[in-house]
Write a structure and sequence with these properties.
By secondary structure, the protein is of the alpha+beta class. The protein is 35% helix and 20% strand. It contains 23 helices and 22 strands. The protein has a five-stranded mixed sheet. A five-stranded antiparallel sheet has the order 14-13-12-15-16. A four-stranded antiparallel sheet has the order 5-4-7-8. Strand 4 (121-128) and strand 5 (131-137) form a beta hairpin. Helix 1 packs antiparallel against helix 2 and helix 15 crosses helix 16 (518-526).
Length: 674
């Protein structure tokens, strides 16, 4: 049939709606209502029409499920929600103790939502006006890889929502065990586990290849922005209910613990989940316990590593028995000494273990560990190998192993700080190598074509001695060395030149100063330390208090940063990088022209508004006028901007004596909005 453009658009819309319905029934409800033959017929009709009228193809078309044969890179994308790790517990007593502590310090009537922790790939889905805009891997918690085209091939992830919500959704992409077994049957070298296969698949450059692997996804968290017709949920359970109504696939094996549940109830549930683990159609490595009430979550907030309102309960780790062959020493970039056990290779949880970290001398003494001992090795949290116990002592009467008095690399006398030994020599070759690897690596300066092997070559040839030398050595000196031809030398030059444009925040976090990572660098800059000179000035004055006054910077962190910045070798490093032209200043944000009527005030915004959709627009108006915005009401909150359905924050603000401002009064204060 020949279609006009108008007729084609109507038919494409009709077929798309039908196919979305059938996809939802098949992938999410697992209750298909049409045969595969009928589905394929409709799908072919749609794709043929889209080929004839390519201008009518939409980003949420069901045809996106098949992917594209065009190659693509995986660009980095910044997260707009916290994507952090979880604090962990390994016993039911730890879980119960955590729950009791939370209730004691907050409210006795709190409930807890418990979910299975799927062993897959963490994914964040960002929707704008109901359309899937981007899908981003967890990455480092702040920046991940954009894998939108690949995620669109997963049938259980909706490309369009029934209502035009703008929201972020967290989930876990995984491969069902039966599908994994089918794929592995035809592999010459089989994959070790479903997670490895899923991780490799989601990062493929051609989405058509991803579509050939039957990945699935469970959704477990949602961050909804206010929109027409949506009353914001007040519990995690309500969030999940809304997500389910929006077409997302949720794991039905969840449970709520109320204050009426006893410790015995909790223990029995955890034991039952552990026993059921082997019967599931997918892999889990634990459970996640979350506070159900969202207002308490906001009050508790986050550490730099994890939310304070959630806990991961990790199952008893899989174990294996092996023999300890030797113990070697690793020297980290900060000089920290780490003993590493070399064991006879043993298969545990799908992977072969031959090296196990021993942490420190206290840990070794606790185990009474000696070379030649027969030991049990576990994968704690199913990830980190650890020696758990000595099964049988060695027959050669080797004594408990001791960390040597001197650094095995440079010969310096080791020092003891807390439970750990340190090499105090900043010029120790292994420390220098560690600093260099860290500085050039991804997530830091990300200097292209300067990988570990190249850095090792530069050091062994005497071309560099520290990170500042990366910008002064002559890459032409590599000519004639194996693997260094004209093309690679040119690429190294270009990578170094490109890194000169990295922002001050990245440079600061890449110096390798303990406690001064990406988040701390961001806090310092936001707190007014917008240049290296301002930080060095504070260090000169030993002004620890100036750093402590910044929200999120503790006294210990501030003390370490000031101490490190006062070290001669760190100053030398900074001077060398400054001379090379690296960015040591963060430009001021454009000053607001608005009168600073909210200066010195701390505002919390809650509820829904007519003039501020989303309500983050109201937060922007407060900040433009000198005010500070917080997500929860505390004793320091001076004002609450209360919209419709303000909820518990309104009650708490009244109790704390904060000034309550409604939308009309706020608009009057700021003179309206454009």
């Amino acid at each position: 049939m020949d279609y006009t453009l108008f007729e084609a658009e109507k038919e494409i819309d009709r077929l798309s709606e039908l196919l979305r319905k059938y996809q939802y029934e098949y992938y999410v409800l697992t209750r298909p209502t049409v045969s595969d033959l009928e589905y394929d017929r409709l799908f072919d009709l749609l794709t043929n029409l889209e080929k004839k009228f390519p201008a009518l193809v939409k980003g949420d078309s069901p045809s996106m499920r098949v992917g594209s044969d065009l190659g693509s890179d995986l660009p980095e994308s910044t997260h707009s929600i916290p994507v952090l790790s979880l604090d962990k517990a390994y016993s039911s007593e730890e879980v119960i103790g955590w729950m009791e502590k939370i209730r004691k310090n907050n409210r006795s009537d709190l409930s807890f939502y418990i979910e299975e922790k799927i062993d897959g790939i963490s994914m964040v889905l960002y929707y704008r006006d109901g359309i899937l805009e981007r899908a981003v891997t967890r990455g480092n918690g702040f920046v991940g890889n954009d894998v939108t085209a690949n995620v669109k091939t997963i049938g259980s992830i909706p490309l369009r929502l029934p209502r035009p919500y703008t929201m972020a959704v967290r989930g876990e992409v995984y491969l069902p065990l039966d599908k994994f077994s089918e794929i592995n049957k035809g592999m010459e070298v089989p994959y070790a586990n479903p997670r490895n296969l899923a991780a490799g698949t989601i990062r493929r450059k051609k989405s058509s290849e991803v579509a050939s692997v039957p990945l699935d996804c469970f959704i477990y968290e949602g961050f909804l922005e206010e929109s027409e017709g949506l009353t914001l949920p007040v519990t995690h359970k309500e969030v999940l209910d809304e997500l389910e109504l929006s077409g997302f696939r949720l794991n039905p094996r969840n449970h709520i613990f109320t204050p009426e549940d006893t410790s015995d109830n909790i223990r029995k549930f955890l034991d039952s989940e552990t026993e059921d683990r082997s019967e599931l159609g997918y892999e889990i490595d634990g459970l996640v316990i979350k506070i159900n009430e969202l207002d308490i979550r906001e009050e508790l907030g986050y550490t730099g590593h994890h939310p304070r309102w959630a806990l991961a309960y990790k199952f008893e780790s899989p174990q294996g028995e092996t023999t300890l062959l030797s113990i070697t020493i690793q020297v980290g970039r900060t000089g920290r000494i780490t003993p590493v056990a070399r064991v006879e290779p043993v298969l545990i949880g799908g992977s072969t273990i031959s090296n196990v970290t021993l942490h420190n001398q206290d840990y070794i003494n606790l185990l009474e560990l000696a070379v030649g001992d027969r030991v049990t090795v576990s994968k704690r949290g199913d990830v980190i190998p650890a020696v758990e116990s000595v099964v049988e002592k060695n027959e050669d009467n080797y004594p408990v192993w001791k960390i040597p008095d001197k650094c095995p690399v440079c010969g310096a006398e080791l020092t003891l700080k807390g439970a750990h030994n340190f090499c105090p020599n900043p010029s120790c070759p292994d420390q220098v190598r560690g600093r260099l690897f860290f500085f050039v690596g991804k997530g830091q300066m990300d200097i292209e074509n300067l990988g570990p092997e190249t850095v090792d070559t530069l050091m062994s040839e005497g071309l560099i001695q520290d990170i500042q030398d990366l910008f002064t050595f002559d890459p032409a000196a590599l000519e004639g060395l194996a693997g260094f031809k004209e093309k690679k030398i040119k690429a190294i030059k270009e990578g170094i030149a490109k890194s000169l444009n990295r922002p001050f925040k990245t440079v600061l976090a890449s110096l390798g100063i303990p406690e001064l990572g990406s988040r701390s660098a961001e806090l310092l800059i936001e707190g007014g330390f917008r240049s290296m000179d301002s930080l060095l000035d504070a260090a000169d004055k030993n002004d620890i208090e100036a750093l402590v006054n910044i929200d999120g910077v503790g006294e210990v962190t501030a003390g370490i940063i000031v101490s490190e910045l006062n070290k001669p070798e760190v100053r030398k490093r900074i001077d060398g990088l400054r001379s090379a032209g690296l960015q040591f200043y963060a430009p001021e944000e454009e000053a607001s022209t608005e009168p600073q009527i909210f200066e010195g005030q701390t505002w919390c915004v809650t509820g829904s508004f007519e003039a501020f959709k989303p309500r983050s627009l109201a937060v922007e108006e407060i900040k433009k006028r000198g005010g500070k915005s917080v997500s929860s009401v505390t004793g320091k909150t001076t004002h609450l901007l209360a919209g419709e359905s303000a909820g518990s924050k309104l009650k708490k603000a009244r109790e704390n004596g904060a000034e309550i401002v409604d939308e009309a009064a706020f608009l009057s204060l700021i003179g309206g909005v454009e």
